[in-house]
Amino acid sequence: MLSGCRRALPAALRLAVRGWAGGGGRRRVSTSWSPVGAAFDAKQQRSRLTGQSTGLFGVPELSSPEGFQEAQEKALQETEQLVQKACTTPPGPQIVMIFDQLSDALCRVADLADFVKIAHPDFAFREAAEETCRNIGTMVEKLNTNIELCQSLKQLLADKEVMDSLDPETRQVAELFMFDFEISGIHLDEEKRKRAVDLNVKILDLCNQFLIGAHLPNKIDKQILPEHIRYNFAVEGNYIQITGLHADCSDDLVREAAYKIFLYPNAEQLRCLEELLTSRNHLAQLVGYNTFAHRALQGTMARTPEKVMQFLETLSDRLFQRTLKDFEMMEGMKMKLNPQNSKLMPWDHPYYSGVLRAERYNIEPSLYCPFFSLGACMEGLNFLFNQLLGISLYAEQTEKGELWCEDVRKLAVVHENEGLLGYIYCDFYQRADKPHQDCHFTIRGGRLRKDGEYQLPVVVLMLSLPHSTKNSPTLLTPGMMENLFHEMGHAMHSMLGRTRYQHVTGTRCPTDFAEVPSILMEYFASDYRVVNQFARHFQTGQSLPKSMVSRLCESKKICAAADMQLQVFYAVLDQLYHGEHPLKRSTTEILKETQEKFYGLPYVPKTAWQLRFSHLVGYGAKYYSYLMSRAIASMVWKQCFVQNPFDRAMGERYRREMLAHGGGKEPMLMVQVIYRNAAPPEGT
Ligand SMILES: [Zn+2]
User: Fold this and answer.
1) Ligand 1 (single-atom ion) residues, CB below 5 Å
2) CA nearest to 115, candidates 461, 408, 412, 447
3) CDD domains recorded for this chain (predicted)?
């Protein structure tokens, strides 16, 4: 029921990580930013200091950590009443409405707590939120196996006449709720249901264990490493700790050593992975699916593992020639820099593609940063949304106690005719204890309330930008600017979703569709016509020269095929591991074969990269999602916006046909409509 708390993929899954250190600069002279830009370029207190505390996000109970307990109890009480109501209401659309209220009552607290538990600077708040998440999670488990509750929904789904009379969104949501019951094994007899619960618990434990193991360092006797490279690693007595791949290190030998040692197989982690995959397969079969992948892919755009493999194979075929060329280029560069040892190995890929990029195009971030002050970027987004959708962003004053940190900004998203659409809290700046991960959080989903009012969506965007300094406002590297656009794409998906039910609000859509709006924003961020609108030097006001924008865009194409090929390899591996069981070979042998077929750089004996593949946990059988979203976003860009990125008619169509539906409509149907409508009319 609460699997409605689907969230957009974290940025870690994104293809190219372009992180550069920020550049400096002198004091800025003048600004002409309108409010949203100014809100981010000025260091000023934004929230009221006097009066009563309103509580986090304006939730009165959350003025103190203890309030979580109270908010949680309220939610659980409301839940009980709604369960009663659902069980006594005759089949009809009201049932779906009650289920959605039920889900809303729990999500409202759980989603908020989910954010607070990782982002609040105060440990007491984080701890209280964590406790609340656990308690609500337990409640959800109970509800998903509540037979009486399920029965009321089943009756509705079985009543063909009533079902036919419902609008498509209501039908879709009813089916989604049913799906949550089914994957929890509600249709099983008591003994099997118990086994399903036990398996779920076991899987959760294995997932946690695997995640911990995936990040554990490997240590070796320091004598084994050549003395001149030891300083690159942490030394502990006689041992050296290898904590990662050192993929950007310029010394080939350091990368090679790190690769071989960090990926050296750990027997316990190997067992953990095998057991996790087997247990997932058991669970899937117990609730009626062939494989775990079949279970995971129900309700996605791809629908079946066969379709996913077809997609990945086609993509791989298309990339093949370009990937070979990329590898040749990298090898050429390695030959130049290290003639004695020029064979291209897996530890060379990220490093040499970076070297090539830097050599061909001078894209030194410090040249770009001065043009991308945070205020300028926000102005750019504001202008773009204004042109495309008639929407403006306004910085809003917050109340005492509403924020978890004083540097958070609250934006009101306002449509020229429809008025206020929702709120985005921008938690953009670095701070101690804040996870270094760009992410979008739904705090409250949009839905049509019983009184006819629309419950406005509320989200948080989390980034880790540097603070402004005495001499300059916050300046973004091109990579950070692109990330900001990406995350704003998620936020606008949330703001513009106008679903009747919060269960399918905004980004609560199938995983392989969730990244479409955000990746589409990356296309805008790379388009000169868009960038030219906002990129101004913070001191001189000069706009970013076109040649610099082109250089930036061209540099992104360098080795892009090889980068994507690597992702295809990971995605195939994820499919095979979650496919037919028992696996035909060991996970390492499968890795070796898949790497040769879908990547191209040789497998290195006595390594087991899969044991570090932490996304197997969160995205089990859905790692392909990012690639598929990218394919769809590229299509939408070409169909709708490449001719004119400010085309209002296209913007409106995109909003109406895609964003407005959240997860309330089959993504494939939305894609088809966009495709059909955007094609130039025949005969003209
Ligand atoms: Zn994303």
Assistant:
1) 8, 518
2) 461
3) M3A_MIP
